[in-house]
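Handout, page 2. Input:
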Amino acid sequence: MIIVVEYVYKKHMAITRGAKKALRVSDRRRVVNDVRRRTLKETVKTVRKDIVAKDVKAIKTDLALAYKALDKAAKTGVIKKGTASRRKARLAKAVAKMGK
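Output:
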């Protein structure tokens, strides 16, 4: 995966060398976090669409991808651990409800 960092002119520019480096680091991390957040949203939406369509085969694969995205986001601090757990539980509950 190639990540391109977009440098955005900020309202307050860093003055010291350390502050300039911190801005560069935070820009790189922001890009990575945005990608992770987008992946998370897309996978969860896909599972929800599969539930509405009642596509059991697609639900199995997409649910695993959603769990993976949620766990990665929680591990890296994009979302909190409890939030990931809650979202996984709600997805599992929706899938179980569809099976009934």
